[in-house]
Design a protein that fits this description.
alpha+beta
């Protein structure tokens, strides 16, 4: 019999009422008794340990999100956040995991290329705080579990998995779940119904197709505003917490409600006889009338991310990139379904 992930499966006579109900807008049914979940090893992710009795206060003044939320909700184990510069521009995005210790402790997951820079950013703010931070990349690996709602269906191989951190992705449910394992452990060793994939491009295509930026390739340090990178839609910022580096511009922009550009998922429409395109970052994306609609941020095959003007995307879906040799590449922009903004 089929099993219902997350809720009890209703008897047949109630199915129509359930599916017609507005409350159940998204239903996940596993038709196999032993459903396999897809897990991807993320080789481009690094880790930083932050330990000490002042670690909460220390991170609270540097991160856009509210670290105190971990202690307001005992069930909370993971948080998405960003580090901004003094001008309010994005330096680094990160995922913060709470570690169960006698003294407060956290594990930061970030872009591997950003680990050293984040440690340098932390040092001037330590002063006399009772906090220590160190590169822990050689201790841990991050894995992405692709399926939505997968955390409820994972089957651990044994009861003693205290060394494993598993949590729903804190950004959006469509990204599935996140696992942080010791360097010498693999996902399939810890969970019996996990299929491992070594090709990280599978995860990147899934993420970029949803319009979610991650790491320094998508978020070049010091270039983009956090609200342009959808930090509010990705649950990565608190507008109720106290001061943090870069807060003033972020809060003012949010409360005025004027956000003209946002990162959006795009598709580059190539014909089959064309060679692989090499398009430079920041290349202009224009409308059919030649009006600038945005710019290219990153490319993953035929998918990519563009920083797009919302007013033009709403009114004109026929966009293009004009190559240096005069060739035109058609561009389609998808309005993310997980946005609360109206299209």
């Amino acid at each position: 019999m089929a099993t219902f992930i997350g809720r009890r499966f209703f008897p047949a006579q109630f199915l129509k009422r359930v599916f017609d109900s507005k409350r159940y807008t998204r239903v996940y049914i596993c038709t196999k008794a032993n459903r396999e979940f897809t897990s991807v090893l993320l080789n481009n992710r690094g880790h930083i340990e932050v330990l000490g009795e002042d670690s909460v206060k220390f991170l609270q003044g540097l991160l856009t999100n509210d670290v105190n939320l971990f202690y307001c909700d005992s069930q909370m184990t993971v948080l998405y956040s960003m580090i901004l510069n003094t001008k309010g521009r994005v330096l680094y995005d990160l995922i913060l995991y709470k570690q169960e210790r006698e003294t407060p402790g956290f594990l930061i997951e970030c872009d591997l290329l950003a680990v050293e820079s984040i440690l340098k950013t932390f040092k001037p703010y330590k002063l006399r705080s009772k906090v220590a931070f160190d590169d822990a990349t050689d201790k841990f690996n991050s894995w992405a579990v692709m399926e939505e709602g997968s955390i409820k269906g994972l089957k651990p191989v044994c009861k003693d998995l205290d060394f494993v951190t598993v949590a729903d992705d804190p950004r959006i449910t469509f990204l599935g779940a996140r696992m942080v394992l010791p360097k010498d452990k693999r996902a399939a060793e810890c969970f019996s119904n996990v299929e491992e994939i070594c090709d990280q491009a599978v995860y990147d295509r899934h993420r970029v197709g949803l319009g979610v930026a991650e790491g320094v390739k998508d978020l070049e340090p010091g270039k983009m505003l956090p609200l342009e990178s959808n930090i509010d839609e990705l649950h990565g910022v608190s507008f109720q917490k106290g001061c943090y580096i870069g807060q003033e511009l972020t809060a003012r922009t949010y409360h005025t409600g004027v956000i003209r550009k946002r990162l959006m998922p795009i598709k580059l429409m190539q014909t089959s006889d064309e060679e692989c395109l090499h398009i430079d970052k920041d290349t202009a994306i224009v409308s059919t009338g030649g009006k600038r609609a945005g710019k290219l941020i990153s490319v993953y095959g035929q998918l990519g991310l563009g920083l797009m003007r919302l007013d033009i995307v709403k009114s004109d879906n026929k966009l293009k990139i004009v190559m240096p040799d005069g060739k035109e590449v058609c561009v389609t922009v998808d309005w993310p379904t997980w946005w609360k903004l109206e299209s």
